[in-house]
Amino acid sequence: MTDQIPRGARDDILSPLPPSQQSLDRSEKTTNDEEQIPPATRPVDVPPDGGYGWVCCACTFTINAHTWGLNSSYGVFLAHYLSTSTFPGATPLDFAFVGGLSISQALFVSPLATILTRIYGTRTTLLVGVFLETLSLIGASFATRIWHLFLSQGVCFGWGMGFLFVGSVGIVPQWFSARRSFANGISAAGSGLGGLVYSLATNAMIERIGLAWAFRILGIVAFVVNLVCALLVRDRNKLVGSSQRGFDYRLFRRGEFLLLLGFGFLSMLGYIVLLFSLPNYADSVGLTAQQGSVVGAILNLGQMLGRPPIGYYSDTLGRINMAVVMTLLSGLFSLFIWTFATGYGVLIFFALIGGTVAGTFWAVAAPVTTEVVGLVELPSALSIVWIVLVLPTTFSEAMALEMVKGAGGKYLGAQLFTGFTYVGAAALLWLVRAWKIGQMEEEAAAAAIEKGPERHESTMTVPLDDAVDAPRVRVHVGKSSLVKRLFWIGKV
Fold first, then answer.
1. Coil vs helix vs strand at 314
2. Distances (CA, A) of 416 to 72, 328, 412, 430, 481
3. pLDDT at site 363
4. Rounded distance, CA 192 to CA 300, Å?
5. Cβ neighbours of residue 178 under 8 Å, at least 6 residues apart?
6. Sorting pLDDT into bands at 50, 70 and 90, what band is 269?
7. DSSP string, 65-109
8. What is the C-alpha radius of gyration for the chain, rounded to an integer number of angstroms?
């Protein structure tokens, strides 16, 4: 006996689009010229999956090393500020906000950088970033008050890093398809290498030539390297058809995108504490400033070593799968290793193994967001992601230092906070994975209808027209329960 389907439901099943796309607002489809174009008539861009893309990958790697990597050395600056009276009257909370601002402002400026890219192109956006980052480091070398540091090493550096980051983060995915996550992992590893080099170099320069000249040398090096990369990199925005909207509010209607934002929010709460606190934590357990800088450098070494394999196996095992597992490991390592790391050797071990997974979000942000919203909407979606991350990146380290202060200098509260935020982030992304499995099932069902009659364990009969005796096709509905999706094993 066959199942009977109402005509409206039958129309949805026979539609070549997945149900998630069928439910789009009809008024938007009629008012948006781009959406009026039938999908079949749009030119399909095929990424070269290499070629000049590897040059762009190398440039993005180097830019990350001289933005996020250079900023990773702030843990060394923070340890120096807390142990000296370079800026009279400044509190540990003030210094925590300087580091938080350097990241949050990079994310806050993302809509402006996205709009600038749309109007003037990627290269102009990158050049603006080169100028602002250089200005910030040179300006910080003349700082004598804490508010000078807020404006230079905090706000101005963040804006420069933001223009460079937003201008380059979406380029690598445009050049690759099958090897997209691997290439993105390589480019993201640049921040690890930069953090490794500059954590050691910054501490050495501060001890030998002083804080001011350390800032000036970093500014000169960053200017030269980032300028060369900005002139070499190329985007494929026109070929891909990227929307480049600064803020596309329609994405907030999608539950899976909101879960993705929650994943990023919680990931950053844990990541910033781990990134900036390790050198000072080393000092709190009786290690020297030199040993603290080595611990920070090893954390960045772990990020450099961990991100390419994460990207490589994301392409073979599933991008969301790898993101969930690596984020969960970040939380477990913090809870079960960092909380017991009171000796130099154990702390080095934690920094290395924890670093391989700590920055998972940055390695998977573009590929996983592409899985959720598609390549066309990627720039707009990432722009929103960066804005949402402003709050956790601004206040995370300040919250951690307040926990330490309230516990009499003990880091246990901050360590538990870091671990559980990572675990929560993994749980939210696990729900995104369940949604993606449902989307894959819907697309498979639609494809089965287009191919014609197929037999499957779970099938229903669909009349081809309104006639009573019309021929029917048997198709697999492909809808499973949420519980089955959560525990389904396969590439996602």
1. helix
2. 22, 14, 6, 21, 34
3. 78
4. 4
5. 49, 315
6. very high
7. HTTHHHHHTHHHHHHHHHHS-SSTT--HHHHHHHHHHHHHHHHHT
8. 25
Residue for token pair 């209808």: 449
Across 3-7, 278-282, 414-418, least confident range: 3-7
Q: Measure CA 289 to chain center.
A: 30
Cβ neighbours of 247 (radius 10 Å) = 14
Tally of CB atoms within 10 A around 224: 13
Its pTM stands at 0.74
Question: Please, which residues have CB within 8 angstroms of residue 491's CB and are 6 or more apart in sequence?
Answer: 316, 317, 318, 321
Q: 40 versus 51: which is more confidently predicted?
A: 51
Rounded CA-CA distance 43/440 in Å is 23
Predicted pLDDT at 100:
87
Q: What is the mean pLDDT of residues 248-267?
A: 92
CB 473 within 8 A of CB 453: yes
| Structural contact between residues 407 and 413, judged by C-beta atoms closer than 8 angstroms | yes
Q: Please give the DSSP secondary-structure letter assigned to residue 3.
A: P
DSSP 40: G
What domains does the chain contain, in order, with CATH numbers?
53-437 (1.20.1250.20)
Separation of alpha carbons 284 and 240, rounded Å: 51
**Average pLDDT taken over every residue of the chain:** 82
- Given a contact cutoff of 8 angstroms between Cβ atoms, the answer to whether 388 and 251 are in contact is no
Kindly list the distances between the CA atom of residue 58 and the CA atoms of 73, 141, 191, 409, 478, in Å, as whole numbers in the listed order: 21, 30, 12, 42, 42
Reported as a pLDDT band with limits 50, 70 and 90, residue 10 is: very low
The CA distances from residue 141 to 85, 164, 166, 215, 427, in Å, are 16, 22, 26, 5, 43
CA dihedral 91, 93, 97, 99 (to 10 degrees): 80
Partners of 473 in beta bridges: 462
Task: Provide the b/e sequence for 173-197 (b: ≥16 CB within 10 Å).
Answer: bbbbbebbbbbbbbbbbbbbbbbbb
Task: Provide the angle, in degrees to the nearest 10, between the axes of the packed helices 122-140 and 211-232.
Answer: 170
- 307-352 per-position pLDDT tens digit: 888 878 887 888 899 999 999 999 999 999 999 999 999 999 999 9
> pLDDT value at position 158?
94
Cross-strand bridge partners of residue 156: none
Going by C-alpha positions, the residue among 337, 340, 334, 342 that lies closest to residue 284 is 342
